[in-house]
Design goal:
The chain is of the alpha/beta class. The chain has one domain: TIM Barrel (Alpha-Beta Barrel). Helices cover 29% and strands 20% of the residues. It has eight helices and eight strands; from the N terminus they run E-H-E-H-E-H-E-H-E-E-H-E-H-E-H-H. An eight-stranded parallel beta sheet has the order 1-8-7-6-5-4-3-2. Helix 6 links the parallel strand 7 and strand 8. 44% of the residues are buried. It binds D-xylitol-5-phosphate (DX5) and zinc ion. The site of zinc ion has 6 residues, from strand 2. It comes from Sulfitobacter brevis. Its cofactor is Fe(2+); Zn(2+); a divalent metal cation; Mn(2+).
């Protein structure tokens, strides 16, 4: 369904070739590029930070969608904005002041996203709907690619009803593949992040599988 955007996560790309990987997935039909930032504190894994985002930015023509799995968030907002993030998504669980964080992200010139871990109810964003451009529903516990999908259809439907006619994306992140995508799209999601399901079987020297994988989702 081409009204659904596909945002490949470069967590599943070749870390030694990020620039070429970003160009390859865009050429193969990716709508956005999803960039997973992990701090070894909010989540039990480390990935990379604003310097890496700045380095890959010139290799992305479209939207750079930066998912911050870090705590605290606020001290780093300006650095990620300067690195060229179009969307900055913070977790509602990452601190006591998500409302302030979303305001600060918009003040820095980015679209503001808010992410919900699997254990966090839809109601956690009820008072944030006018401050947010994207709600990211995690369908794995964040920290690693390649995990098993957790069904969050009820949460997605509840969020779609809460959003009403506001221009807010619902993004799904974790374990999305050709088998799990139809149910989240039917529940009301419009952006699907996929890491392992997009990058499997391909490489920068043989990128055609990326396109086949994107079209299969
Ligand atoms: C999980 C990340 C996801 C993840 C997606 O912590 O936020 O973006 O890497 O990877 P797959 O699609 O392999 O679950
Ligand atoms: Zn992510």
């Amino acid at each position: 369904d081409r009204s659904i955007k596909i945002a490949p996560s470069i967590l599943a790309a070749d870390f030694a070739n990020f620039g070429a990987e970003c160009a390859a997935i865009e050429a193969q039909g990716a709508d956005w590029v999803h960039v997973d930032v992990m701090d070894g504190h909010f989540v039990p894994n480390l990935s990379f930070g604003p310097a890496t985002c700045a380095a890959i930015r010139p290799h992305i023509k479209g939207v750079m969608d930066v998912h911050l799995m870090i705590s605290p968030v606020d001290p780093y907002i300006d650095a990620f904005a300067a690195a060229g993030a179009d969307i900055l998504t913070a977790h509602v669980e990452a601190g006591p002041h998500i409302h302030r964080t979303l305001q600060a992200i918009r003040a820095a010139g980015c679209k503001a996203g808010v992410a919900l871990n699997p254990g966090t109810p839809a109601e956690a964003v009820a008072h944030l709907l006018d401050l947010t451009d994207l709600i990211c529903v995690m369908t794995v516990n964040p920290g690693f690619g390649g995990q098993k999908f957790i069904d969050m259809s009820d949460k997605i439907k509840a969020l779609r009803a809460m959003i009403g006619d506001r221009p807010v994306h619902i993004e799904i992140d974790g374990g999305v593949d050709a088998n799990t995508a139809p149910s989240v799209a039917a529940a009301g999601a419009d952006v699907l992040v996929a890491g392992s399901a997009v990058f499997k079987g391909g490489s920068v020297s043989d990128p055609a599988p990326y396109g086949e994988n994107i079209r299969a989702i």
